[in-house]
Structure formats: C-alpha cells, structure tokens
Amino acid sequence: MLKAYFMAGAIALALALPAGAQTQSNAELDEIRKQIQELKENYESRIQALEKRLKQESAAKTQGEATETQQSATQVQQSAQAAAAPPPAQQAAPNAFNPALSLILNGSYNNFSVNPANASVTGFLPSPLYGDVLGPRGFSLDESEFTAAASADPYFRGQFTAAFSEGTISVEEAFFQTLGLGHGLSLKGGRFFSSIGYENSIHAHAWDFKDPALVQTVFLGPNFAETGLQLNWIAPTPLFIELGTEIGAGATEPGLGLDTGSNRNGIPSWTAYAHIGDDIGTGGSYRVGLSTLQTSTGNNAIPFGDLDQTTGTTNLFTGNVRLYGLDFVYKWAPDGNPVDRNFKFVAEWWYREYAGNMNFDSTSTLGVGPVTESFTAKQQGWYAQAVYQFVPEWRVGLRYDRLNEGSISTGPTGVAIGATVPNYTPWRAAAMVDWSLSEFSRFRLQLQQDRAQQGVIDNEVFIQYIMSLGSHGAHKF
Amino acid sequence: MTADKVLKVNRWLAAAAAAFALNHSAQAAVDVFACEPEWAALSKEVGGDKVSVYQATTAMQDPHRIEARPSLISHTRAADLLVCTGADLEVGWLPVLLQTSGNSKVQVGQPGYFMASDFVAKLEVPKAVDRSQGDVHPYGNPHIQLDPRNIALVARALSERLVQIDHSNTAYYQARLKDFEGRWQKALVEWETRAAPLKGMRLVPYHKDSAYLIHWLGMEEVIDVEPKPGIPPSAGYLSELLAKLQAQPADAITRGAYQDPKAVEWLSERTKIPAVTLPYTVGGTPQAKDLFSLFDDTINRLLKVRNPA
Predict the structure, then answer these.
(1) Is domain B195-306 classified as CATH 3.40.50.1980?
(2) Are A244 and A230 in contact (CB under 8 A)?
(3) Position with higher pLDDT, A152 vs A330
(4) Residue A3's closest chain B neighbor by CA?
C-alpha cells in the first residue's frame, strides 16, 4: 500500500518529505504543515491531471461524440474550481484485456462402487451417455473451458466458449448478442446454451454439484445448446418478467439423440421460456420459469436403443419430441450480502413426450423387423437441491434426483421386443461440501448414492477442483 | 344520472387525471440506477426532483459480490442513466445486468453509462496484475468515495452528464450543482479542520477500502486484516497478524458494516487496539444518512478512538 502511495508521483513525494520531517509540537507548525499538505495535494492533482490529459490527447480522437461534448462542457464550467477535475478517463472496458479471456481448469478423482462405463438410466434413452457424464474411475481430467468475450462494436458483443475434454474439443457457445436494440430486447445469434430451465444455461464449472441433475442429463444432456437465434425481452415493469424464444437446428442435443442433425432446411427446433422474479425482503430473491422445447426429427430418424437394455437392437424413431419444464430458484443471504453466509434452493421439473413412429429392429438383428409402428412415450423427472454457505469459504449441499418412467404405448412388435416401461423409478441422492479460498478456486467433495439403473446401487465419491484463471467472470442469478 | 353517480364519475375522472399527471411526471424524470448508496445519494443531490433514483445495493452489502438478481435486471432495463463506481468494482454482476437488460441507453460507451471512477485519479494502480495478489483491480483501487474531493469531482461530472441526457433542465442541474458545491466546499473545510488530529493515525482496515480516506487525511495504513484483497483471513493468518500488530502497534482496526466483525473483534480484543466500525457509504451506520453525515460520522468515529475522552 505504502509503495503504491509513493508511486503516485515523485514530486508529490518530494513535497511530502519536508512535511513529514516536521515534529508535532505546536499549532503553528501544524498549520504550516497543513498548508504544505494542501499545496502537495493541489500539485499532485494538477500533475495527475496533466499526465492524464497528455495520455488523452492521442486517445481523444477515438472517443465518441458523447465524450467530446462532455469535455467541452467541462471546459466551459472549469472556471469555478481552479483545482480542476482531471479530464474524464477513457471508459473502462469489461476487462483490462481485450477480449476478456478466461480459462477454467477442472479435474477430479472419482470412486465408483460399480463400473461407470456400464452405467445407464433404466427406462430412459439414450442412456449410454450417462456413464460419460459421471466420468471415469480414478483421476480424471474433466472439461477445461476457454472463454473469450468482448464488444464487437457499439452494437454487438460476442462470446466464444470451447470445452476441451479427453480427445474432444467442442464449441459450447459461440454467439453474438445485440446491445443496441433497446426496448428490453436483445437478439443472440450463433450457438448458445438455451435459456430454457435453470441448470441448462449454466456452465459445468458453475454447477453446485460435480454432475448435473439426472433429469438434466437424460433430457437435455447436459446442456442443450441451440444453434440458431434467440430473442429475449424484458418487460418494462418493476416486477422482473422475461420472455424469450429460440429457433435453431437443435443439432447438438445428445440427450435427445439428435447429434446427427436433422439434415433438412427450415427450423427443426424451437423453444420458448418465461421467467418472473423479484426480491423478498432485504435478503431474498426468487425466479420462477416455464419452458418448452419442441423439436422434430423430420425424415432423419434417430437411433433409439430398446428401453430395458436387454436385447441390444437398433430402432429408429421419427416424429416430434416435446419438453415442458418448470423451474424455481431462491437465494437468500443476511441483508443480501452473500459474502459470509448464503443459501440457494433450486428445483426443476421436466416432462418429455415422444410422438411419432418407431422402426423396430431396423437391422433385423432379432429377425422380427424392420417393422414400423406408432410410438408414444411420456416421461418426467425432477430434482431439488439446496446449498448453504455457513461460513466464508465453506458450503454444504444436498440434492435429490428422480425420474418417472411414465408410459410408453406402441404396437405389438414393439411390445414383443421390450419397448415397454420396466416398472422402475431411477433416483439418486447427493451430499457435497465445497471449499473456496477465494472466488477463483474451489475444491469439492461429493458423495452420491446412484440408483439410476435397475438392480444397481452405485456409491460414488467425487473429489473435484475448479480453478478460474483470467478475467473475472460475471455469473447469472 | 343522479347526483351521486355524477360525483362518482367526477371522482373517477379526477383519479385518472391524477394518475396521468403522476405517470407524466414519472416519465419526465431521469431514471437513475445507482450501483452503490453513495452514488444514489449524490444523484439526488445533483439531480433533485428531476431524477428518480433506484439504489441497487445497500451499505450492508459488499459491492464486489452482488447477485445479478431479477429485480436488478428489471431496474437496469428501466434506467436512463447508470451511476456506478466502475474500475471493475461491479465486474462480477454489472455485465450480466447490461447484457440481459436490453437497454441500449446504458451500455458501455453510451451517455447513460456513468462510472464515477473515470473522473478521479485512482490510487494503487498496480504495475502488474496477477491473481496471486488476490482480487486485484487492474484500474486501481475503486473505493474512491471516501475522499470528499473525489465526490466533488464526480458531482461535477455527473451534473454534466445529466445536462447531456436531459437538456431541457440544464439550468436546474447547474443551479443544483452550484448549491451542492457551495455546501460541500464549506463542509470540506470544516472536516479538514476537525480531522487535523487524525493526521498520522495508524489504521488497520479490513479491506483495501480506506485508501482514499487515509490518503485524504494523511493517515497511515499499517496492514489489512485480509491477507489479500477479497480473501478472508484464516485463523493462522490472524495469529500472524496478531504478532505483527503487537510488534508494530496501530491506533484502530476498522471495518465496514458488511464486513465480518469476528476477525476484527478477535484482533481488537487481543491487541487492545480499538475496533471501529466505519460507515464507508451512506447507510453504513445509523448516523451516516447522506453524503454530509457520512463524512461527519467517519471523522467522529475516528476522533473518538484517537482522543479517548
């Protein structure tokens, strides 16, 4: 601190020294010292002003009209106070770096009582993905995330986020967003995490548990990214009301098995969401949301294993997939200051409906197909989780996860080869504690009992680290 | 129509007219979104009844760590002018508000984006920025509000900005500023006279948020309670600090209303150095009701421990 103080200006220091040499004895000396101090301050601010102005000369040209008029206004009014303001500095960008760069390092040590490579979610498809979400046994390098973001010009900003994991690099988000539409409107274009639900738009490093909720993984897997356009509108009311819609390719949707893309013109996927939120008292605030995702396969059938994972056939689904969701988040901190203590509660419910046709045994593996029959599946899932920071640095959390197999209706061939609900309710329970020495580092221990697969009780232990390097990210509510 | 009904209709008309008038005057005012209480207070001082001020945070909240909650987004959407500190103080939440709000008037670089720290000379601008030094601010220390001379600089700039946004009230804003500056100048002289005994006082602030106060009054910052900015002191660090303060005594350990009192009290008890709660901003103590009483109370509280009566 002292060092920085002295750095403020060598001249100021030189002036300060004789003042410091004075002994504190009588009022007269004090008075003289005060005058010198004032003189020092005066010179210091003037020198700083001059230095600033010098720097500004070159920058001045690039500054907008706004600043120009302001500066001239400053000059007109400067007569009153000779001590004078330093001319307005260049306005601070979101970060000292342009664009703002940040890197997330994420890794874990995982212990499973049952081999996660075979993990699946009974009655829900496609479930082989589930083991990938949980991660491998032992030490694991998890998704590292790189983000670059900046304003493109006064009208647009852009953001790019890539995720690096063993053997793959994926573009999680790469979008532009308008800044100048006004009227509460903003438009996003490119690829972005859809704003449906709550957990869906949150990047892995900001999750409150090591893995996403089961319903999130199985239905949206685990972040449904739309490649297309998003229009978002904030209502001009004191009560927070947000409405939005997205249209796009819906192609990066592993949870729905649409990763091959729909291979057709037009818009195979659209979403809509509505959020309402407000404060409750001085320390609490909430947001509730209603979402839907509607997508169709077109003629490009998606592979669909069989539902109880016993026969290993390939079935192809064509038709519509519709999701409806409800989400709720509540946060509280004493006086609204989360630094020492804070509490967060999140709950989400999702309903998913497949409606179309299934081409059973498309490769004739079982010798009964290929046979096309109508196929409808109505399934749902929900989770509730609470996280409490009880002292600075330490948080504890609990989560309960559950899926409801719902109903499946299809023709006789489908029933014959096992496309029926297996009469099982997958569920999980997790407890975690995490420790953050600063805002930029976190270590987490999570214990989870996983009963996603019928007949399997997997006891899981995760030890995880998350490091945030680079520019200070801002987090959503 | 009976007389009764006529009366009712008249009443209804009057209510509608009143509502219209209210609505109209609400539209006429400049909607200010003030990130911190000191800027809300200053906006009221220089904007008077031509501005309608929404204060986003309170003195009980750490301005570094605010949730970008729904109510803040809807108020950002409604704002004509953001009055914030800048210098990355709000970097953890303001960008989310700006991006979500869909409000073109308050985006970076627009007249509606007013960052107070752009108008003052900042202290402690680091030569190198590295997080090994904690949550450092690359643009310098952003806690500029505790030097009243900074407040004067910001007041002038803010008044000019209001003129730019709301031309039709130019004379009003200029008169408000003149009046404020007159009162502020008078107060400044009084504060400096009263605070003369504080010169050379050795402080141990919780966070690096007293730098401008210390600089203004010629005090000394011995060490911070936080080991690095934004990192709370551990038990181990506190005992280290205890040893340091026993070897190198200070006059007061200070903290803001939103900062953890436990560490400060623990230190104070063991070192016998008095702990002082400073308001840091408007509303930080019951006495700090506006910008004037903010400085009155800050000086009073420090004088109390400087000259124990």
Answers:
(1) yes
(2) yes
(3) A330
(4) B124
